[in-house]
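User: I'm putting together a small comparison set for a docking exercise, and I want a reference complex before I start. The sequence is below, and the ligand is magnesium ion. Could you produce the 3D structure with the ligand included, as structure tokens?
Assistant: Of course. I'll restate your input first, then give the structure tokens for the complex.
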Amino acid sequence: MAEQTLLEAVNQAFAYEMRVDEEVVILGEDVGVNGGVFRATDGLIEEFGDRRVVDTPLAESVIVGMGIGMAAQGLKPVVELQFMGFIYPAIDQIINHAARLRNRTRGRLTCPMVIRAPFGGGIHAPEHHSESTEAIFAHMPGVRVVIPSSPARAYGLLLAAIRDPDPVVFLEPKRVYRLGKQEIENNGEALPLDSCFILRDGIDVTLVSWGASIKESLEAASELAQQGIDVEVIDVATISPLDIDTILDSVSRTGRCVIVHEAARSFGVGAEIAAQLAGEGIASLLAPVIRVTGFDTVMPLYRYEQDYLPGVIRIVDAVKQSMEYR
Amino acid sequence: MQVPEFTIETVETLDSEGRLLRPLPGALREREQLIDLYQIMVLTRVFDREAINLQRTGAMGTYPSCEGQEAIGAGIGVAMRKDDVFVPYYRDVATQIQRGVLMEEILLYWGGDERGQKYRDQSQDFPVCIPIATQSCHAVGIAYAIKYRAEGRAVVTTCGDGATSKGDFYESINVAGAMSLPVVFVVNNNRWAISVPLAKQTASQTIAHKALAVGITGIRVDGNDPIAVFEVLDEALERARHDNQPTLIEALTYRLGDHTTADDASRYHDQREYDEARTIEPLIRFKRLLQNEYQWSDADDKALYDDSGKRVQQAIEVYQATSDQAPGDFFDYMFAKPTTDLVRQKKAWLDGLKHHG
Ligand SMILES: Cc1ncc(C[n+]2csc(CCOP(=O)(O)OP(=O)(O)O)c2C)c(N)n1
Ligand SMILES: [Mg+2]
């Protein structure tokens, strides 16, 4: 067993699956010889050749669109969009085709593909490289949205996404790509695509997050523990379909919920969770649900991006605010 | 640097009177084969008229007529092999019925029922595509899969002249060239994109020219002549199957109907141009060929129309007798295995149905 970063875990999951499944084909800009701009596909072209690790022309719509055609023929394409900020030309293909193919042919044609993109802020990247727009995809019926937040979950969830018979949008929090290592057994074991992960048990407040913000959420929980507040931390991980039952169950014990996400505040995944808590979970709530999020502004360029991102201080404050509510 | 000069060839086999300009292609020498081509066009024409009637009488939703463009679909269908893959847009009745899509299925789809794209007898072809030019991308991916497995098959995809303005079209022909994929792009140049004439669509002299920019073969064909369409398709398909070479074919035709049943072309079309197009539409011309060269009689013609009418009526009967989808069927095809939440949403919906009837 070796210690791996999230990025290396993605790479290892690819190598594992491509060895056992000839139908897995990677395509995207710079994924081949260069191994991807973040090196997620590093070394794969050497092992699997340019038939299976395909450098495509710079054309996002056709990259995803051809993935759909390949998937309909029974291949398992994994397409990489270089950054989430450049996925938008392909949204047409995702919402109008990938998400609908099974339904509109009543199961005759299906779309077992993965659409990967690095996302989120905090790495001092240029304009358009830092946004978190997972809610756009979570709102599309027919696609799964998965966001790993640790190396082990990246490994297990990517394997699950590749093996899933339906399209999966797999968003990788690039801020934690190389932050922290974890031992991963390269045993090909996938994780479920329909459950949240409870990262820390607690009885006072449920802290719900995903992606890179899990890091600050866990840090906030440690800090709050020292102040005698016992926080349960949930990594949603499989954003859509949402495992609301795990969140409801936790809130039934804590009565309080704080949701943390990098994405803009309004109409987001946090709002969906809050709405479900206000429905099914209303009887358990002892305090209003609080969201700690990015803002409804254009994301600032890198010099001010920390002002936008939900940090430990804002999370700690929100949890205390929740605790103080009587 | 000197840019090479180029010319775009236009393939024709019939003159405006339906006289052969040159010998028939080898694969179409038999009278029966020509009658088959004619039969497909007639069946499509009759189907098309009846589909419009169904819409007019409220028995079906919006329908895009393919009147005047039957020769393209007839030629494509005859040139394709069963194991090739067809990725249509929405004026491809003539090809689809040759590829095993049932006429009642086409009616069912335009009649608002997804089961019309389940295709009982056609497993691989894509369904109708409404977001313009998006299907070009799928064709490229299918071609990649075929090449990946070295299957020696090919893909044919269609789109309209308007579609060639879209990024997806350019992206697709470009990737097909860059990756050398077995795909044939056929553009139904019917001169209109709803009300927008081709002249407003592009300054390119021909649509086939667009192939040159991406390094693939571009060719024009008389799209009102199913023999010529067959011939260019046949060649392009061979290049695709054997050499993984893509081709862009511009088929010249004219849209004789409204854009769809929701459109009124009299608001924008040019009557003189339209009247002229009527005189060279594919069915009249092909009938002349059969009459002049193949002893096709008026009685033969009437028998063919009668038979086509019967087949279409049978399809309409099946369409109209199709039972409803099971209530809430639309919940069941979102994922291979329904998600917990969808199971709940469906149950709540069905409970409501029981409660309120
Ligand atoms: C992306 C997209 N934009 C607009 C429309 C609405 N629309 C449907 S058909 C059409 C014109 C298409 O013209 P053309 O490609 O020439 O095909 P034709 O209908 O003439 O066969 C338009 C604008 C659409 N379906 N998809
Ligand atoms: Mg047109």
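Chain A has a mean pLDDT of 97. The first strand of chain A starts at residue 2 and ends at 4.
User: Thanks, that's exactly what I needed.
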